[in-house]
Amino acid sequence: MASSAPLILRVVATSVNVANRAGEIIRDIMSKGDLGIVEKGKNDLQTEADRSAQRSIIASLSSQFPGIRIIGEEGESVSGDVPSDWKVTDSEPSVLGLSCPDNLKSIKEEEMVIWVDPLDGTSEYTQGLLDHVTVLIGVAVGNKAVGGVIHQPYYNYLKEGAPLGRTIWGIDGCGFGGFTVGSAPKDQRVICTTRSHLDATVQSALDAMTPDEILRVGGAGHKVLLLLEGKANAYVFASGGCKKWDTCAPEAILHAVGGRLTDMVKGEPYQYHAEVEHRNSGGVLGTAPGEDHSWYFSRIPESVRQLLSKPSSR
Q1: 127 partner at 20 to 30 Å CA-CA among 35, 187, 196, 254?
Q2: What is the full DSSP assignment across 62-110?
Q3: Which residues make beta-bridge pairs with 39?
Protein backbone atom coordinates (compact mmCIF):
# COMPACT_ATOMS: atom_id res chain seq x y z
CA MET A 1 0.00 0.00 0.00
CA ALA A 2 2.86 2.37 0.79
CA SER A 3 4.21 2.52 -2.75
CA SER A 4 0.78 3.23 -4.28
CA ALA A 5 -0.34 5.88 -1.78
CA PRO A 6 -0.13 9.56 -2.77
CA LEU A 7 3.16 11.23 -1.92
CA ILE A 8 1.74 13.47 0.82
CA LEU A 9 0.40 10.43 2.68
CA ARG A 10 3.69 8.57 2.33
CA VAL A 11 5.70 11.51 3.61
CA VAL A 12 3.51 12.06 6.68
CA ALA A 13 3.19 8.31 7.37
CA THR A 14 6.98 7.94 7.30
CA SER A 15 7.42 11.10 9.40
CA VAL A 16 5.27 9.60 12.17
CA ASN A 17 7.70 6.71 12.61
CA VAL A 18 10.73 8.94 12.07
CA ALA A 19 9.52 11.22 14.89
CA ASN A 20 9.05 8.19 17.15
CA ARG A 21 12.68 7.19 16.58
CA ALA A 22 13.88 10.75 17.21
CA GLY A 23 12.02 10.66 20.52
CA GLU A 24 13.84 7.48 21.52
CA ILE A 25 17.18 9.13 20.73
CA ILE A 26 16.24 12.17 22.83
CA ARG A 27 15.34 9.96 25.80
CA ASP A 28 18.52 7.88 25.42
CA ILE A 29 20.73 10.96 25.55
CA MET A 30 18.91 12.33 28.59
CA SER A 31 19.30 9.00 30.39
CA LYS A 32 23.09 9.09 29.90
CA GLY A 33 23.32 12.43 31.71
CA ASP A 34 25.61 14.38 29.35
CA LEU A 35 23.43 16.73 27.31
CA GLY A 36 26.31 18.32 25.39
CA ILE A 37 24.87 21.84 25.69
CA VAL A 38 26.01 24.58 23.29
CA GLU A 39 24.77 28.16 23.65
CA LYS A 40 23.87 29.47 20.18
CA GLY A 41 22.64 32.83 21.48
CA LYS A 42 20.62 34.45 24.24
CA ASN A 43 17.92 31.99 25.39
CA ASP A 44 18.92 29.73 22.47
CA LEU A 45 20.47 26.42 23.49
CA GLN A 46 21.40 23.35 21.48
CA THR A 47 22.05 19.91 22.95
CA GLU A 48 23.39 16.61 21.69
CA ALA A 49 19.75 15.49 21.56
CA ASP A 50 18.92 18.31 19.09
CA ARG A 51 21.84 17.37 16.87
CA SER A 52 21.35 13.61 16.97
CA ALA A 53 17.58 13.69 16.53
CA GLN A 54 17.95 15.91 13.48
CA ARG A 55 20.58 13.63 11.95
CA SER A 56 18.17 10.72 12.31
CA ILE A 57 15.24 12.66 10.84
CA ILE A 58 17.10 14.08 7.83
CA ALA A 59 18.90 10.82 7.05
CA SER A 60 15.62 8.87 7.17
CA LEU A 61 13.51 11.27 5.09
CA SER A 62 16.15 12.29 2.54
CA SER A 63 16.93 8.66 1.68
CA GLN A 64 13.28 7.97 0.86
CA PHE A 65 12.30 11.34 -0.61
CA PRO A 66 15.50 12.70 -2.20
CA GLY A 67 13.68 15.37 -4.22
CA ILE A 68 12.17 17.14 -1.20
CA ARG A 69 14.02 20.07 0.36
CA ILE A 70 14.43 19.51 4.11
CA ILE A 71 15.12 22.54 6.29
CA GLY A 72 16.00 21.85 9.91
CA GLU A 73 16.74 24.12 12.84
CA GLU A 74 20.23 22.65 13.09
CA GLY A 75 20.95 22.89 9.33
CA GLU A 76 19.98 21.08 6.13
CA SER A 77 22.68 18.45 5.76
CA VAL A 78 23.94 15.46 7.72
CA SER A 79 27.67 15.29 8.39
CA GLY A 80 29.36 11.96 8.95
CA ASP A 81 27.86 8.50 9.15
CA VAL A 82 24.46 8.03 10.72
CA PRO A 83 23.99 4.79 12.71
CA SER A 84 21.89 2.34 10.73
CA ASP A 85 19.40 1.93 13.56
CA TRP A 86 18.70 5.68 13.39
CA LYS A 87 17.43 5.36 9.82
CA VAL A 88 13.71 4.68 9.64
CA THR A 89 12.13 3.13 6.55
CA ASP A 90 8.67 2.01 7.65
CA SER A 91 5.42 3.99 7.60
CA GLU A 92 2.34 4.41 9.78
CA PRO A 93 -0.49 2.35 8.17
CA SER A 94 -3.32 4.51 9.52
CA VAL A 95 -1.99 7.49 7.56
CA LEU A 96 -1.41 5.53 4.36
CA GLY A 97 -5.03 4.36 4.42
CA LEU A 98 -6.52 7.87 4.34
CA SER A 99 -8.58 9.12 1.41
CA CYS A 100 -6.54 11.89 -0.17
CA PRO A 101 -8.32 14.94 -1.64
CA ASP A 102 -7.84 15.58 -5.36
CA ASN A 103 -5.71 18.70 -4.85
CA LEU A 104 -3.06 16.66 -3.01
CA LYS A 105 -3.06 13.45 -5.04
CA SER A 106 -0.56 14.44 -7.72
CA ILE A 107 1.88 16.54 -5.68
CA LYS A 108 5.52 16.00 -6.70
CA GLU A 109 8.59 16.01 -4.46
CA GLU A 110 9.92 19.26 -5.89
CA GLU A 111 6.70 21.02 -4.82
CA MET A 112 7.22 20.13 -1.16
CA VAL A 113 9.37 21.36 1.72
CA ILE A 114 9.83 19.58 5.04
CA TRP A 115 10.48 21.79 8.08
CA VAL A 116 12.12 20.08 11.07
CA ASP A 117 12.56 21.11 14.67
CA PRO A 118 14.24 18.03 16.16
CA LEU A 119 13.70 19.18 19.74
CA ASP A 120 11.25 22.00 20.34
CA GLY A 121 11.60 23.26 23.90
CA THR A 122 15.35 22.76 24.28
CA SER A 123 15.60 25.11 27.26
CA GLU A 124 12.85 23.18 29.04
CA TYR A 125 14.58 19.89 28.17
CA THR A 126 17.74 21.06 29.93
CA GLN A 127 15.70 22.16 32.97
CA GLY A 128 13.78 18.90 33.30
CA LEU A 129 10.42 20.31 32.18
CA LEU A 130 9.99 17.30 29.95
CA ASP A 131 6.28 17.61 29.19
CA HIS A 132 7.09 20.79 27.20
CA VAL A 133 9.38 18.93 24.78
CA THR A 134 8.27 17.93 21.27
CA VAL A 135 9.69 16.77 17.95
CA LEU A 136 8.18 18.69 15.01
CA ILE A 137 8.08 17.60 11.36
CA GLY A 138 6.03 19.88 9.11
CA VAL A 139 5.22 19.30 5.45
CA ALA A 140 4.52 22.23 3.14
CA VAL A 141 3.14 22.12 -0.39
CA GLY A 142 3.89 25.31 -2.27
CA ASN A 143 3.43 28.11 0.26
CA LYS A 144 1.09 26.24 2.58
CA ALA A 145 1.61 24.10 5.68
CA VAL A 146 -0.33 20.95 4.77
CA GLY A 147 0.89 18.09 6.95
CA GLY A 148 2.33 17.89 10.42
CA VAL A 149 3.67 15.48 13.02
CA ILE A 150 4.16 16.34 16.70
CA HIS A 151 5.88 13.75 18.89
CA GLN A 152 6.05 14.07 22.67
CA PRO A 153 8.98 11.92 23.87
CA TYR A 154 7.98 12.25 27.52
CA TYR A 155 4.20 12.01 27.30
CA ASN A 156 3.02 10.17 30.46
CA TYR A 157 6.47 10.39 32.05
CA LEU A 158 4.96 11.26 35.43
CA LYS A 159 2.48 8.37 35.34
CA GLU A 160 4.05 5.23 36.70
CA GLY A 161 3.57 2.24 34.41
CA ALA A 162 1.96 4.26 31.59
CA PRO A 163 3.28 3.95 28.00
CA LEU A 164 5.94 6.59 27.39
CA GLY A 165 5.68 8.93 24.41
CA ARG A 166 2.95 9.93 21.97
CA THR A 167 2.78 11.00 18.33
CA ILE A 168 -0.03 13.03 16.80
CA TRP A 169 -0.43 13.98 13.17
CA GLY A 170 -2.71 15.80 10.79
CA ILE A 171 -3.12 16.60 7.10
CA ASP A 172 -5.22 19.64 6.24
CA GLY A 173 -8.31 18.52 4.33
CA CYS A 174 -7.47 14.86 4.85
CA GLY A 175 -7.56 13.76 8.49
CA PHE A 176 -5.74 13.56 11.80
CA GLY A 177 -4.83 10.98 14.41
CA GLY A 178 -3.12 10.18 17.68
CA PHE A 179 -5.30 12.46 19.81
CA THR A 180 -8.87 13.49 20.56
CA VAL A 181 -9.84 17.07 19.81
CA GLY A 182 -10.91 18.82 23.00
CA SER A 183 -13.40 21.62 23.57
CA ALA A 184 -11.83 24.92 24.53
CA PRO A 185 -13.06 26.52 27.78
CA LYS A 186 -16.43 28.27 27.29
CA ASP A 187 -16.79 30.10 30.59
CA GLN A 188 -13.34 31.67 30.65
CA ARG A 189 -10.57 32.78 28.30
CA VAL A 190 -7.36 30.81 28.72
CA ILE A 191 -4.36 31.98 26.70
CA CYS A 192 -1.01 30.25 26.36
CA THR A 193 2.16 32.15 25.63
CA THR A 194 5.92 32.08 25.97
CA ARG A 195 7.60 30.97 29.15
CA SER A 196 11.03 32.49 28.53
CA HIS A 197 10.67 35.36 26.00
CA LEU A 198 8.30 37.70 27.82
CA ASP A 199 8.73 41.45 27.30
CA ALA A 200 6.54 44.57 27.33
CA THR A 201 5.22 44.01 23.80
CA VAL A 202 4.29 40.39 24.45
CA GLN A 203 2.56 41.43 27.67
CA SER A 204 0.71 44.28 25.94
CA ALA A 205 -0.86 41.85 23.45
CA LEU A 206 -1.79 39.45 26.23
CA ASP A 207 -3.44 42.18 28.29
CA ALA A 208 -5.50 43.25 25.29
CA MET A 209 -7.09 39.80 25.13
CA THR A 210 -8.48 40.20 28.69
CA PRO A 211 -7.53 36.65 29.70
CA ASP A 212 -8.90 34.88 32.75
CA GLU A 213 -5.78 32.74 32.87
CA ILE A 214 -2.39 32.79 31.17
CA LEU A 215 -0.40 29.57 30.69
CA ARG A 216 3.30 30.32 30.28
CA VAL A 217 4.81 27.24 28.68
CA GLY A 218 7.75 26.28 26.47
CA GLY A 219 7.71 25.17 22.85
CA ALA A 220 5.39 26.07 19.96
CA GLY A 221 4.41 22.43 19.60
CA HIS A 222 3.39 22.24 23.25
CA LYS A 223 1.35 25.45 22.99
CA VAL A 224 -0.61 24.21 19.98
CA LEU A 225 -1.22 20.90 21.74
CA LEU A 226 -2.98 22.90 24.46
CA LEU A 227 -5.30 24.32 21.76
CA LEU A 228 -5.88 20.92 20.17
CA GLU A 229 -6.82 19.29 23.46
CA GLY A 230 -9.09 22.10 24.68
CA LYS A 231 -6.81 23.32 27.48
CA ALA A 232 -6.49 26.83 26.04
CA ASN A 233 -8.54 29.06 23.77
CA ALA A 234 -5.68 30.89 22.08
CA TYR A 235 -1.92 31.04 21.64
CA VAL A 236 -0.63 34.62 21.64
CA PHE A 237 3.03 35.51 21.04
CA ALA A 238 3.72 39.08 19.95
CA SER A 239 7.36 38.58 19.01
CA GLY A 240 9.46 37.55 16.05
CA GLY A 241 11.22 34.85 18.05
CA CYS A 242 9.50 31.87 16.39
CA LYS A 243 10.80 30.21 13.22
CA LYS A 244 9.13 28.28 10.39
CA TRP A 245 10.28 24.93 11.80
CA ASP A 246 8.46 25.84 15.03
CA THR A 247 5.09 26.49 13.39
CA CYS A 248 4.79 24.45 10.17
CA ALA A 249 3.75 21.16 11.77
CA PRO A 250 1.54 22.70 14.49
CA GLU A 251 -0.17 24.99 11.97
CA ALA A 252 -1.00 22.11 9.62
CA ILE A 253 -2.47 19.98 12.41
CA LEU A 254 -4.41 22.89 13.87
CA HIS A 255 -5.92 23.70 10.46
CA ALA A 256 -6.77 20.02 9.94
CA VAL A 257 -9.10 20.11 12.96
CA GLY A 258 -10.65 23.52 12.30
CA GLY A 259 -8.38 25.85 14.26
CA ARG A 260 -6.26 28.66 12.83
CA LEU A 261 -2.72 29.97 13.10
CA THR A 262 -1.66 33.27 11.53
CA ASP A 263 0.71 36.17 11.95
CA MET A 264 -0.36 39.10 14.12
CA VAL A 265 0.21 41.85 11.55
CA LYS A 266 -2.08 40.87 8.67
CA GLY A 267 -3.88 37.86 10.15
CA GLU A 268 -2.58 35.61 7.37
CA PRO A 269 -1.12 32.09 7.50
CA TYR A 270 2.63 31.93 7.19
CA GLN A 271 4.27 30.83 3.95
CA TYR A 272 6.55 27.81 3.96
CA HIS A 273 8.20 27.64 0.53
CA ALA A 274 11.91 26.87 0.40
CA GLU A 275 13.12 30.46 -0.03
CA VAL A 276 10.97 32.08 2.65
CA GLU A 277 12.53 33.93 5.58
CA HIS A 278 12.93 31.47 8.43
CA ARG A 279 11.88 33.96 11.10
CA ASN A 280 8.17 34.46 11.87
CA SER A 281 8.67 38.19 12.22
CA GLY A 282 4.93 38.94 12.47
CA GLY A 283 4.36 37.06 15.72
CA VAL A 284 2.03 34.10 16.23
CA LEU A 285 -1.72 34.00 16.86
CA GLY A 286 -3.30 30.57 17.13
CA THR A 287 -6.88 29.74 18.06
CA ALA A 288 -8.53 26.49 19.05
CA PRO A 289 -11.29 24.86 16.95
CA GLY A 290 -14.54 26.74 17.45
CA GLU A 291 -12.87 29.98 18.54
CA ASP A 292 -13.46 33.27 16.67
CA HIS A 293 -9.97 33.97 15.35
CA SER A 294 -11.02 37.37 14.02
CA TRP A 295 -11.99 38.51 17.51
CA TYR A 296 -8.52 37.81 18.86
CA PHE A 297 -6.92 39.47 15.85
CA SER A 298 -9.07 42.57 16.30
CA ARG A 299 -7.84 42.94 19.89
CA ILE A 300 -4.16 43.23 18.95
CA PRO A 301 -3.02 46.79 19.75
CA GLU A 302 -2.01 48.87 16.74
CA SER A 303 1.28 49.65 18.46
CA VAL A 304 2.06 45.93 18.57
CA ARG A 305 1.21 45.46 14.89
CA GLN A 306 3.42 48.37 13.92
CA LEU A 307 6.35 47.02 15.88
CA LEU A 308 5.98 43.51 14.46
CA SER A 309 5.76 44.87 10.92
CA LYS A 310 9.36 46.07 11.31
CA PRO A 311 11.32 42.79 11.57
CA SER A 312 14.65 44.51 12.09
CA SER A 313 13.39 46.05 15.31
CA ARG A 314 12.73 42.78 17.13
Answers
A1: 254
A2: HHH-TTSEEEETTBS---S---GGG------HHHHTSPPPHHHHT--GG
A3: 45
